Amino acid sequence: MDQHVLPLEFEVREWRAAHLWQDHPKVEELKQAAQSQNLWNLFLPKGYGTLSPGLTNLEYAPLAEIMGRVLWSSEVFNCSAPDTGNMEVLAKYGSDRQKERWLRPLMAGKIRSAFLMTEPEVASSDATNIRTSIQRDGNHYIINGRKWWSSGAMNPRCDFFIVMGKTDPDAERHVQQSMIIIPKDTPGVDIIRPLRVFGSLDSPEGHAEISLQDVRVPADNMILGESRGFEIAQGRLGPGRIHHCMRLIGAAQRALELMCQRVSTRETFGKSLADYSSIRQDIAKSQCQIHQARLLTLEAADTIDRLGVKAARELIAMIKIVCPQMCCDVVDRAIQAHGGLGVCQDTPLAEFWSYARIIRLADGPDEVHMYQLGRQLIKKHRF
Ligand SMILES: Cc1cc2nc3c(=O)[nH]c(=O)nc-3n(C[C@H](O)[C@H](O)[C@H](O)COP(=O)(O)OP(=O)(O)OC[C@H]3O[C@@H](n4cnc5c(N)ncnc54)[C@H](O)[C@@H]3O)c2cc1C
Fold first, then answer.
1. Is the pTM above the cut of 0.90?
2. 125 C-alpha vs ligand 1 centroid, how far in Å?
3. How far apart are CA 155 and CA 382, in angstroms?
4. Which domains does the chain have, with CATH numbers?
5. Residue nearest to atom 51 of ligand 1 (CA)
């Protein structure tokens, strides 16, 4: 096996592909070790009081960068999406019963979760298009719709979904939506199929297409109240973007280091690859891009800590525009310098590229963030 991939990193990746939807025993052991050393739920900022291990977003950001160097490692510390976002939602907006029933076991790492917003029938980058209906029926709600790209839903330990849908289709656009908790084993929930990402099933979490047909849940599964879906979505996404962006920075930094190592060991046309000007330019450009992205993301984290998510809105949009594209660019150069090795399983580069590429879509495509940031800036600076 190539020196560029760590033995355990390689073993877990290969094992997961061969044992669909199963957790690797070594990862479970590492989780217990992390929990016993209080390296657990590090992402939950200290504003959450006793629920939080006590770090700020700014303090957590470099840890997320380290986790990004081995993509599955964030799970070891109970810091992986979509559980992190769902924990923040329940910690911030959940009722006491919801916290007891779902937040507590999620924070203990006993269960996993999924977030169901995107739908195959509508352009979901505009969340006002979401069609799933959530209708009140006495002490219950009845949910009907179809979702896809529900990350984490294939994992057998996934216990519940947070689902976005419409409670009032006739209301003003931003108050039509609500979020409700659906236990995965509720009658009417049908996991239709797992979706592949560039050919990979991303086991053991997976990304599911799910049908919800006359799914009935108690009325007190509603989070925060009817019509509050957008409000919750805004609160959910800010810190989550810091996590993704810092992981992307860690992945890009490792790709760059691998590139430097690789070009130092290969020669073409009588010269080391490290001595070609084009290679050195690629390396220099990559380090500049990585560090620019890192500083921008740290500023966004610091602004969230000091002034709140709303005040950090422009910075959060900027990092979401900058970091996935930066990581795609850096990893692409590293792949090129590795030759055929760069696209196979013997380095982490292929999965880094795939991760960066999907983050250009997930949590809102690049263009949507540019569209919204551009609008805010025009509003701010026009006469
Ligand atoms: C691997 C993966 C995991 C995901 N996990 C989840 C999850 O856990 N839960 C969940 O709910 N969703 C998840 N998603 C879905 C993701 O958030 C959506 O794919 C994304 O929001 C885009 O929605 P859409 O696919 O419907 O694309 P559409 O809304 O149809 O958009 C298609 C394209 O139109 C363009 N576009 C849109 N708006 C504009 C604009 N204003 N200006 C210019 N161009 C524009 C963009 O290029 C965009 O990519 C995941 C997606 C992937 C790939």
1. yes
2. 5
3. 49
4. 7-80+96-107 (1.10.540.10), 112-223 (2.40.110.10), 230-381 (1.20.140.10)
5. 362
